[in-house]
Amino acid sequence: MVSIVPFCAFRPRADLAEEVSSVPYDVVDSEEARQMVEGNPYSFLHVVKPEVDLDPEVNIYDPSVYAKGAENLARMVKEGTLLREATPSFYVYRLKMGEHSQIGLVAGASVDDYENDAIKKHEHTREDKEIDRTKHIDALNANTGPVFLTYYQEDTIDEIIDQVVKNVPVYDFCADKVQHTLWVVSEEVVVQKLQNSFAQIKSLYVADGHHRSASATRVRKERQDANPLHTGEEPYNYFLTVIFPHNQMHILAYNRAVLDLNGLSKEEFLAKVSEKFTIEEMTTPEPSEKHSFGMYLEGKWCQLRAKPEIIKKNDPVCGLDVYILQEYLLAPILGIGNPRKDNRIKFVGGIRGSRYLEKQVDEKKAAVSFSLYPVQIESLMAIADAGEVMPPKSTWFEPKLRSGLVVRSLVS
Fold it and tell me: What does the alpha-carbon distance between residue 121 and residue 44 come to, in Å, rounded to a whole number?
């Protein structure tokens, strides 16, 4: 069973919500962030990527960066850009991208649930990234970026949310072709219904935000160790999340482009590929089903189909297309042994489309590119349930949550 709590969020003035809201800190680099904040002093990138306000020569992990983030957050509160909710509340957050719509609940999730595996993970984390976010949370005394969670859909929760969205939202704006709408849920009876309903949920699953959730756990441990009067009710025992039902999740492929053919000629490369995959002509760049792949080579798309003997249907990880491509093509043929560290491979979010993959090859930035069939959310959850981890760069979730709409303070 899982525990969620309402909280008194800091959130933007209604007339500034669009200007304040920003992309997540980890989808842009520092230079891109500097360009985005130009002319916009309200952008939440000043808080989540505070290096934008420092000399570009300053290391992004320098203590001055975290101090700047704290300064910028305090300034936004002092100037009234961010206002604090008077009543502990949940928030309902809807995202619409084209024909797709998903509605999640913004809530504080329990560090205890994360540590006890009631909140399940499917990725390894990197210590350097954990330390970075830990220092950021600690310096700002706040969760500034939400962790993206999911759960097996429940009718009772849907019914409560459906009633909430009949009310007037506090924010409703379009950014990056996505409509973002937010409702405040402060009525005590509704808050209690949501808490009771989630208490019946067996597990939550981290969809995106493994480093943020792991960092919240580090912060809790540090503060618990330093607090002889620790009760378990302090704000640091929870972290900021947006929780969506699994049947509304939208996962795009995470595609690949490889710099060269590992010393092989085109003919040698195709001969080796054909040992484990059938190669066919392709009418569209995207694969039509699981265990098939698009491959763009020398200006032409073809479809690869994994041969039955390499498909391990009873293993949730080994049956993934990203695993099959890595183990039977990228590693043995193209020499990409460790995709986390090899700079010959580039990971391309599905939102960029097939034309981007073509350009990588046509402009000689890659020798070959691959389009994959998207991972299904049920596969991710099955892997998490099994205590396994997915290969790196397996899922690309869209639409992306905006940062800055709801900030959760660690100060009571």
Answer: 27
